Amino acid sequence: MASLTWTEPESSANADFQPVYPYNNVTQTESGHSFELDDTPGRERVRLHHRSGTFTEMHPNGDVVHKIMGKGYEIIASDKNVLIKGVCNITIQGDSVLHVQGDSYNQIDGNVYQQVNGKMNQLVQGNCEQTVQGDLDINVSGDTNISATSVNINGDLNVRGNISGTQSLGVVGNLSAGLSVSANKSVETSGYMIAATTINAGISMFAPTVSDMFGPMEQMRLLYDQHKHIGNKGYPTSPPINISPAM
Asked: What is the pLDDT of residue 201?
């Protein structure tokens, strides 16, 4: 990953490398503007300096420093093309505004790293489509809230915790949970529902086949429905207890 910090390079005309006469040609005005053409061997420079401190300096190795002590404006009436064959570092110590009045296209041939130390808000006034041709991992330290008319998942849904619903849960295919499936009102599925621990429904639960770690629930209901308590004289002491839920 590239470095996030950088510093302004020092001018080659510092105290240790002063221009040598007569190689340095300087033009200076009464107010303090100056223009230098330095031909000192090994320290060749070109510097255009404004009295406010704003300057443009070309260093002996070809580096260019353009420093503006006030505000900067760049207006291009037509196209502009920029090619950077190295690392590009941009540090903004205030706010940043990018207003694109047309379409925006970004192509990254490598990886993308983004770190937000505060909040992040995103508004999309049209449709939003995202295509991931690999895996998608989302790690959230808090809650994840989704407000939508409906949530459609065209694939398998694997849950390593609990599934809780305040209304109903309908499944056309299979429903599997590693721990438990619970709902305050009903759990409905037209396929198979398998839970390793518990299946809880506050009011009703409908499924052609429901299984847990002890066996099919339909088989367990038949076993209890046909059970009779036999007294000492060989007669049932009470009728079978129907524990099947009302449909």
From this structure: 65
Tokens in use for 16?
A: 């240790």
> Distance between CA atoms of 192 and 218, rounded to whole angstroms?
12
The alpha carbon of residue 193 and the mean position of all alpha carbons in its chain are separated, in whole angstroms, by 33
Bridging pattern class, strands 162-165 and 64-67? unpaired
Alpha carbons 152 and 201: distance in angstroms, whole number: 23
Instruction: Report which of 8, 18, 19, 13 is spatially closest to residue 68, judged by C-alpha positions.
Output: 8
User: Can you tell me the distance from the alpha carbon of 86 to that of 18, in angstroms, rounded to the nearest whole number?
Assistant: 31
Token match 């109903």: residue?
Answer: 168
pTM (two decimals): 0.66
Q: What is the pLDDT of residues 204-225, one digit of tens each?
A: 666 666 666 555 555 555 555 5
Q: Count Cβ atoms within 10 A of the Cβ of residue 57 and give its class: 0-12 exposed, 13-18 middle, 19 or more buried.
A: buried
Give the CATH number of domain 20-71; options: 3.40.50.880, 3.30.450.40, 3.10.450.190, 3.30.40.10: 3.10.450.190
**13-63 pLDDT tens trace:** 776 778 899 999 999 999 999 999 999 998 899 999 999 999 999 999 999
For the cut 70, the answer to whether the pLDDT of residue 238 exceeds it is no
φ/ψ of 92, rounded to 5, equals -115, 115
